[in-house]
Amino acid sequence: MSESDAEIARARLLEIVPGGFEEIAAGGWVELAAYTDSAGEARMRDAFADVVVRLVAGGWEDRWREFHRPVHVAGLWIGPPWEWTTETEPAVVVDPGRAFGTGAHPTTRACIELLARLERGRLLDAGCGSGVVAVAALRLGYEPVLALDADPVAVEVARATARRNGVDVEVRQADVLVDEIGEADVVVANIELGIVEALLRRRSARTAVTSGYLACDVPRTPGWARVARLELEGWAADVLVAK
Known about the structure:
Helix content is 28%, strand content 28%. By secondary structure, the chain is an alpha/beta fold. It folds into two domains: 3-66, no CATH class; 68-242, Vaccinia Virus protein VP39 (Rossmann fold). Helix 4 (106-115) runs parallel beside helix 5. The chain is globular, with a radius of gyration of 18 Å.
């Protein structure tokens, strides 16, 4: 599938195989591969038009772990629990699985890099997924941090991520386009482009860090001025300031 279609496909595939999947990108195309049984195969065929099945050797249940490697972002170590040691820089330990956000995706890394460049203050993570950005923000010195997501599974996972890292993040289930979200100094939104644009119309902060879209996309944000952009592997993240 094309890179532009992959984000939706990742979310759908996580619903079918919450234990994780492999991702191979080349030439602007992305292949997603999951280890599953016959029932999982049937669900995948119902969800996707193009499914190829191959038999694999034993041990596939844990092989997906090989594809979740730690990354180093803005002075933080971000990675899965089986890779973590206490002898590294400040860490964000996140268990990949049921909610988007392992820290390795370019949009996640770009958001954290941009947050590290800004003045610290109250932070709102709108569409928090696994909670990796919210926890990273606390590690960088933002406080307090409020993380919101409409998906109850994401809320559960984000709370677990905060507990695993021993940090105090308030996590609530909320639709960031409809529900009361309060005020913050910085709002970070690593979500779909249209939702980013709608969220910024609510003007819940004076500074916004946004991502979740390709480098060829530019959010339409009346009332906001873009002051910085970071592009990684074909994806983009922006810093915007309310006018």
